[in-house]
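=== Discrete structure encoding ===
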Amino acid sequence: MRQEDMQKVLEIGVLLSSERDHNRLLEQILECVMDLAHCDAGTLYLLDKDHLRFKILRNHTMHTYEGGNGKDPTLPPVPLSRENVCALSLLENRTIRIEDVYNCPDYDFSGPIHYDKITKYHTQSMLVVPMHNRNGNRVGVLQLINALKEDGKTIQAFPKDMALVLESIASQAAITIQNVWYLRQIKALFQSFVQVMSTAIDERTPYNGSHTRHMAAIGSRFLDYLHDRGIAAFPPEEKEELLMSVWLHDIGKLVTPLEVMNKMARLTPAQHNDFLHRMETIRLHSQIRLLSGSITQEAYAALVEGAHRAEALVESIDSAGFLPDEKLDALAELAAAAWTDKDGNIHPWLTPAEASQLSIRKGTLSEEERQIMEEHVQVTDKLLSQIQFSDDLSHVRQWAASHHELLNGSGYPCHLTGEQIPLQVRIITILDIFDALVADDRPYKPGMPVGKALSILESMATREGKLDPELTRYFIESNCWEGAYA
């Protein structure tokens, strides 16, 4: 073997130990052994149950280059039977070296000969090398065709010493392929587990059932939009890291009390029932006073009408998304009203706790409840600190736990500002707010039209300084949400 060939063998060894992209690995394995063996054509097969599937196909004379980009060649798989020389090589775990296919009675070459007739190609010499991993498990086959002499034109038989070298490379290649498979399986398992956990979190409440899934779908499209237009580089591994952060951003809600997460109205169910019972008590007590002659018909009618108005006001306020000043003024007037029971004791129409809850200007959560809700990001950080993320997912904890930070420092939990908030977090924040605005499964509000939601995002970016203006503009231009809410 020539010195340069020895150098190539060493380079192949380094290559196989470093490449982790499955498609690129298969392509490089075949290209390297073809270059080392000085041959015109080659095929890499991988075992799939009882068939060998074409994965990479190269033929320099025919200018055929299939596979290697994630798409398999279109040729049908080869049955794992002894009639096929590549299958036989794998079944018997031995290298098969053939000097002249057309003058070799030992094997069935009807397939290659038929292919030659169709393509006008001439298959002459062949070297078939099985790939088995360290445990002896079958992985695939390397099949090389038409070794060439120094002139690059004349076909010759594959040298015997080359067969030994390729057997060594094939063995190492099989182990590398198996390791990459294992890595892919582990990654797929972890991703599946993350999505199961995320789904479980969303499914804790019927009012948040699709939040993370929508964010992931929209986020994937938005990242592609930014990447394809050269706005921000998001190669596959960085896109995966950001989307993993999306899937895990609400994991802290595992410990958020359901009575807070599911709170559809300002009053708790118990408070609401107590209020309605009190209004009914006022009406009944007023009727008793009327019948006893202690109040007039007009006073009775006023009390009954007042109770009905109070119920209507509370019902209109209880689940409203936002309270205007006139509602708050009417509520303050009601809170100041009082009634007298049969024993002469004076009671407020609204308890202080009810008045406080109903006075919440926006949403349904009190300050205490909102604080409990906001604690989910700190719990997210705590839970994710227990996961040993790989290097390519090393930012997931930070990004997931920061998705409520805002550029003007009004976010939480750390009140980060400006450049303290990474690009990836700014993106997640936009996705989170957008879905919260348009989602129709939230307890405290109906979903709003996309146009209105985008207007709010734009205002938060340009007027309030909470969101990244440039990213928000790109998000609006991307239309990445289309079809996500079908």
Q: What stands out?
A: DSSP finds 18 helices and ten strands in the chain. The longest helix spans residues 160-203.
